[in-house]
Amino acid sequence: MSGSAPLSARGLTVSFGRTEALRGVDLDVEAGEVLAVMGPSGSGKSTLLHALAGVIVPDSGTVSLGDTVISDLPEPARAQLRLREFGFVFQFGQLLPDLTALDNVTLPLLLTGHSRRRARRQAASWLERLGVADTRDQVPSEVSGGQAQRIAIARALVTGPRVVFADEPTGSLDSLAAESVMTTLTDLARDTGATIVVVTHDPRTAAHADREVVVRDGRIGGRTGGGARGEAGGEAGCPAGDDADRAPRRPVVRTRA
Q: Which keywords fit this entry according to its UniProt record (predicted)?
């Protein structure tokens, strides 16, 4: 991997019919960075995440992971890259409903060629690390929303990904569970050296990030700063009061997008 920006986008455009979802987006995400992508509904932030993750191919522009141009790869190669290099956490966990917590976390390891014994041992270790070891034999319908998201985080991190993509990871949780899940996700990612790109409309979730970008009308605009206290946080609707008093995890460095 070369340079300090393992994930980069240049000139991304994506359209769905006549709707322009992305309009010439440039973005660099540094190694080990926690980046929050904010914006109103329909602004293009989830489309940007899917393009960065190689789930969709942009109409024009490029997405690169280190020296690999993801957007030039055929779908089978992009699927393998997603499996081996990326982890995903979604709003509702997206756990497989018929598998136990342990089997949900084990599955990515089996798909990357680990033996079943080794995969289950590694998965059990991650469930313990996330504080949900007691759910190992339960299916998703038998656990709470916060527990489900912790299981999903274990599944996202178990393969040692370079980048974790989180799409509204706290959107279905109450405020206490949301705070706990984001603290766990960001702390563990920093421990493992993973980069995180989190899409959110919630300033409290964005407050856990090192940097924030705001997407409006398919473009990155305004300013970026550390967490929800950066000036972009105010543009995105961060209220005064408790959120304004929340200290970012790292010093605020404001730049123009």
A: ATP-binding, Nucleotide-binding, Transport
